[in-house]
Design a protein that fits this description.
The protein is mainly alpha-helical. Helices cover 74% and strands 3% of the residues. The N and C termini lie far apart (51 Å).
Length: 313
């Protein structure tokens, strides 16, 4: 972050989402509700997996970690957006902007790896059921989680290493409600065409490549389920459909941001809100509504909590 010392720009100004007071009020109510609901929903999933011994399995361990990441997605941009909604001068410091970009890419990179790990978990469970507990051992699960965060950090640091020392000497207006690399780079006072191309190519290649790998993986799993149709096939397909929905919800906006060649500001903002607010809220709903075991476990945990509260009083 020493690049800030070589820059005359100390802060960036967000144009935000709208100038209409009515729309700002609607967005505030809408975003606040979904933000609180996503934090509560993902927290409940994490607590349920931790405290219910019936869910101490690789699939639910990875799901709890996905919920933790979804909470991070919500917290990176939502609080600042809510704070700025009714402010005329929406600003963020240079270091604050860099920090936001840093965490956005860490969390994004970690989620990509974790979704691939969850696809691998389902592949082993369905295609190699006899070896499932041997392959998906606790050590392997921890390896997946550590690898997800390490690769997320490497991805974020690698991206920022090329841009943190850019010179910013004048333009400081971002037509958005959060900081991200494509718009940030455009404000530099040097020719950044090659840098923009490189950052877009790297992020686009990683997101599109990961998405294709996941689609192929789930296609193989679905074909295997159909070939070995049994009593558990409907349950397996229900679980897979939940995973596929989460993958599409995550990668749809990401691919549009970094791989779509014709950016459209209004759609870009809509997808950014969807990615930051709705996706972390929808993920716990998708996994709980389509998973009877999770719903039963949540009821058990809630009953235990109520019982504990009664005893403590």
């Amino acid at each position: 972050m020493d690049g800030a010392n070589h820059s005359t720009v100390s802060e960036f100004v967000f144009l935000g989402l709208t100038n209409s007071w009515e729309m700002q009020l609607l967005l505030f109510v809408f975003t606040s509700m979904f933000y609180v609901a996503s934090i509560m929903g993902n927290s409940l999933i994490m607590l349920t997996v931790i405290y219910d011994h019936h869910l101490h399995s690789p699939m639910y361990f990875l799901l709890a970690n996905l919920s933790f990441i979804d909470m991070g997605v919500s917290c990176v941009s939502c609080p600042k957006m809510l704070y700025d909604l009714f402010r005329k001068h929406k600003v963020i410091s240079f270091n604050g902007c860099i920090t936001q970009i840093f965490f956005i890419h860490i969390i994004g990179g970690a989620e990509m790896v974790l979704l691939i790990a969850m696809a691998f978990d389902r592949y082993v469970a369905i295609c190699k059921p006899l070896h499932y507990l041997t392959i998906m051992s606790p050590r392997m699960c921890i390896f997946f989680v550590v690898a997800a965060w390490m690769l997320g950090i490497i991805h974020s640091v690698a991206q920022l290493a090329f841009v943190v020392n850019l010179s910013f000497c004048g333009p400081n207006v971002l037509d958005s409600f959060y900081c991200d690399l494509p718009r940030f780079i455009k404000l530099a006072c040097t020719d950044t065409y090659r840098l923009e191309l490189m950052v877009t190519a790297i992020s686009g290649f990683i997101s599109v490549g990961s998405f294709i790998i996941l689609l192929i993986s789930y296609a193989v799993i679905i074909l295997t389920v159909h070939k070995h149709s049994s009593g558990g096939s409907s349950k397996a397909l229900s679980t897979l459909s939940a995973h596929i929905m989460v993958v599409v919800l995550f990668f749809g906006p990401v691919i549009f941001f970094y791989a779509w060649p014709f950016p459209y500001i209004n759609l870009d903002k809509f997808l950014a809100i969807f990615d930051a607010v709705l996706t972390p809220f929808l993920n716990p709903i998708i996994y709980t509504f389509r998973n009877k075991e999770m719903k039963v476990a949540m009821k058990r945990v809630c009953k235990q909590f109520v019982h504990f509260r009664k005893i403590s009083k």
